[in-house]
Amino acid sequence: MKKGWRKFTLLLIVTMLAVFLAACSSSGTSGSAGVDVGIVLPTKDEPRWVQDEQRFKDALADSDYTTEILFSQGSSAKEKENVETLISKGIEVLIISPHDGAAAGAAVEAAKKEGITVIAYDRLITETDAVDYYVTFDSVSVGAAQGQYLIDHTEGNGVPLYLYAGASSDNNAFLFFEGAWSVLQPKIADGTFVIANSSVAESLKDKAELTRDEMGQILGQVTTNWDPNEAKNKAQTHLTAVGADLKGDVVILAPNDGTARAIADVFATDSDITSYVVTGQDAEKASIQYIIDGKQSMTVFKDVRTLVKDAMGMAVTILEGETPETTGTYDNGSIEVKAKQTDVIVVNQDNVKAELIDSGYYEASEFTGLD
Which residues form the Periplasmic binding protein domain (predicted)? Predict the structure, then answer.
């Protein structure tokens, strides 16, 4: 009798253990497949994207929806792997800021095949119809604001103009340059500016609108690849190559804050440069300090809080079965992608406190010399 009871007890324990393990397995599957919104960002090596990561987390903190954020670290292969990982976790919406706009096509096409809504974030994914929406700052207006700032802070004629751009693999780099060229070109054509570091741009100075191929040729000469070290090396090379007639008081179109600081440091150490005006964008903390100190002239403030809010608001709308509002479209080479655009703000010494401190974007204690 005892032997039979022991067998029964053992069988009961084994059955209960099996049920427990099955429950755990089921729970694990549910957890791994319970991600509603997958987010893929290009790199953790730039402050901008680290800020975005935290703000995405905060955006859904009080929501019933879940999200997972992965970084591609400048690799299209890693980016595709990240998307595949998120697909396996059952995401319904993919928000992705591509490392390479064209190369990202394969990744988002895999997502679309699974019925996932794809939102390109800040950078457009090109040459594919597998993009549903695009959330962005008006990139053309960013470049136009940079170019206009140089015009507004220039006196006289024959002022040397140094052009720099982002990575040619990033569609935004073309849009930024397009916007800048649209306002700078008339001033180049009339002699206000003299292009100092691009023979291609010099040969096209009388052309108001450039083709993408023409812009690509210019970018080929002046790209920084969004890399401060590459920007520094290019600036050193350019200043070594030119004569005194292309120094003195100069203006510099720098594409973003990281490259702006690197380029400014090089120009500041050249004894033949008497003054420089240099642009930037992203309102990185280090560049805000540079602006306060007079080392960087301006930055285009793209309030990531608003962009994240727009992207997550669009994702939630989709999850709830509704259609998001859009404000325009962008041609990605395959389709017209519906877009929601966010405004940008020019920040310099005059308004840095009002725009970035008083608005709560940064704390005053994070900077020195701020009145």
Answer: 37-322
- Between CA 161 and CA 163 the distance in angstroms is 6
> Which tens digit of pLDDT belongs to each residue from 242-265?
999 999 999 999 999 999 999 999
pLDDT at residue 111, rounded to an integer = 97
Whether 253 contacts 180, CB under 8 Å? yes
φ, ψ for residue 347, nearest 5 deg: -120, 130
Instruction: Provide φ and ψ at 98, rounded to 5°.
Output: -75, 145
Helix (H) or strand (E) holding 261: helix 257-268
Q: Which domains does the chain have, with CATH numbers?
A: 34-131+304-342 (3.40.50.2300), 139-302+347-366 (3.40.50.2300)
DSSP string, 18-55: HHHHHHHHHHHHHHHT---EEEEES-SSSHHHHHHHHH
**N- to C-terminal Cα separation, the chain:** 90
For residue 2, what are the contacts with CB-CB under 8 A and spacing of at least 6?
A: none
Interval 303-311 mean pLDDT? 91
Q: What is the pTM of this model?
A: 0.74
One-letter amino acid of 250: V
Report which of 267, 251, 254 is spatially closest to residue 228, judged by C-alpha positions. Answer: 254
**Number of helical H runs and strand E runs in the chain:** 13, 13
Strands 299-301 and 345-347: antiparallel
Q: 263 CB contacts (<8 Å, ≥6 apart)?
A: 162, 164, 231, 232, 235, 252, 254, 278
Residue 266, SS3 per DSSP: helix
